[in-house]
Amino acid sequence: MGADPGFRYLNLENRWPGCDYASHGLSVGDDGGLRLAKTSDGYRRTGAFIAGPIVVSDRPTDWQLLRVDVSRLPSNAHVRFFTLSSDRSDGSSSSPAPMVPWDAAATVVTSVANHLPRIPLDTWQAFPLDALHGRIFGEPGCFLWVAGALQGDGAVTPLVDQVRVDFDQVGSLSLLPEIYQHDESHAAIDPLLRLFEQPLGQASDSIDGLAALCHPWSAPDDGVESWLDWLAGWLGVNLDETWSESQRRCVVALAFGAHAKRGTAESLQNYLAQYGFRTRIEEAGSGLSLWSLDDGNLLGCNTQLAPAPPDGAVLGRTAIPNGSNLSPPDRVGAPLHEDWAHCFRLGLYAAESLSEDDLARIRRLIDRERLAHMSYSLCVILPLMRVGVQARIGVDAVVAARPRVSQLDTSHSLGGCSRLRSTDT
Q1: CA nearest 102: which of 152, 147, 36, 161?
Q2: For 77, which of 87, 121, 152, 323 could close a Cys bridge (C-beta 3.0–4.6 Å)?
Q3: Predicted local distance difference test score (pLDDT) of residue 33
Q4: Cα 361 to Cα 347: distance, rounded to the nearest angstrom
Q5: Nearby residues of 293 by Cβ (< 8 Å), 6 or more positions away
Q6: Which CATH number covers residue 145?
Q7: Is residue 269 part of a domain?
Q8: DSSP track, 5-71
Q9: Does some domain include residue 245?
Q10: Could you give the count of Cα atoms lying within 13 Å of 319 in the half-sphere of its Cβ?
């Protein structure tokens, strides 16, 4: 055929080059669309345009599809489009341009059924009334004309934004067995297949776009129920309404990996950080170990007795009637950790200035995310650094201003939380 596969637009930057519309009762609005020309009391009732010749090669071109974008088509207004292919630049041997299709002397085919597989050259093909997409059945030619007729009731007008012509594109015929691609079959089958390419193409584009819809960084996030909200629901993630779009997408993107660590201290700490709460989580059982009285262990400070012998009841040693714990072989040592294995402490820094509503919200978030069998305590880390008691650097060693001078009363104990006035103040 002619040129490389492609398409041509009639509206270029809100101008319609090569299109005669003003002499047929149309005008171009500020938005670049073709419309019926205005009158003193509204719009003209009829108008038309003719564009061409469209040329893409010095050899015959297979003109295939006509696509029209119409942004406004009221119920009491109509549009109709026409195409004509020719091997002569004037479209006719007897006139400087082809007769317009609404001329009574023009040859117009309104039903292609009697002219399949092709409409002869220099013959107008009329598309159905208000049809905005259709197959061009004209014989391949070097030149193409496109015409359109607009109609209204004087009060309204259609608005044609764009007209596009596709040519020499490989259609669905290439997907059929080779026997259907011979010259004899090609001419009859290809035009019919292209009638279905528009709806099938839309379905194919939707299928091709599924990957983007299921990706957290490209899924649409607009409307009451966006695709991003659907993804979050599939992953069991609750998106906060106050989060920014980038934060919402980040949470969904990390959700699948976060499920692998769900229930751990790290996961819970990251979960609260998503809502803007800086916390520190300590598992009570993580510090349990065997101990002996030496420089590193202080009796009554960091030592405790096990609730039961680690190896259960042993005859001659720990088996006491009505006072022994029987342990199966697979639970040897379990009594050492049973009291603390499923407990954790969540520390919040007082410098965060958390309100009672914030603390209540933190508890709701923890109850939603923690494992059902785990218990916890919520502690506020105050600026009360004391060596040996609260002095872990980077954890709870928070230095505050000098406290007020204490007065001995019921709330202060001498030598405990009291402070004497210095001589220089």
Answers
A1: 147
A2: 152
A3: 92
A4: 15
A5: 299, 303
A6: 2.60.120
A7: no
A8: SEEEES-BTTB-TTEE-GGGTEEE-TTS-EEEPEETTEE-SEEEEEEEEE-S-SS-B-EEEEEEEEE
A9: no
A10: 6
**Which residue range is the domain that position 121 belongs to?**
6-169
- The answer to whether residues 411 and 314 belong to one domain is no
CB half-sphere exposure, 62, CA atoms < 13 A? 15
Rounded to an integer, what distance in angstroms lies between the CA atom of residue 146 and that of residue 124? 9
Q: What are phi and psi of 6, to 5 degrees?
A: 180, -155
pTM over 0.70: no
pLDDT at residue 93 in the model: 41
Residue 315 lies in a domain: yes
**Is residue 245 over pLDDT 80?**
yes
Q: How many residues are present in the chain?
A: 425
Is there a domain that residue 229 lies in?
Answer: no
* φ, ψ for residue 67, nearest 5 deg: -125, 130
Q: Are 141 and 12 within one domain?
A: yes
Is 216 within 8 Å of 235 (Cβ atoms)?
no
Residues 320 and 419 in one domain: no
Same domain for 368 and 394, yes or no, is no
Q: Same domain for 155 and 58?
A: yes
- The structure tokens listed for 87 are 């091997």
Residue 2 has pLDDT above 50, yes or no: no
Q: Are strands 143-151 and 46-54 parallel, antiparallel or unpaired?
A: antiparallel
Other CB atoms within 10 A of residue 421 CB: 9
Could you tell me the two tokens for 46?
A: 């009829």
Average pLDDT, the chain: 76
- pLDDT at position 92 is 47
Q: How many whole angstroms separate alpha carbon 100 and alpha carbon 83?
A: 10
d(CA 103, CA 5): 33
pLDDT of the residue at 36: 93
The residue with tokens 């490209």 is: 218
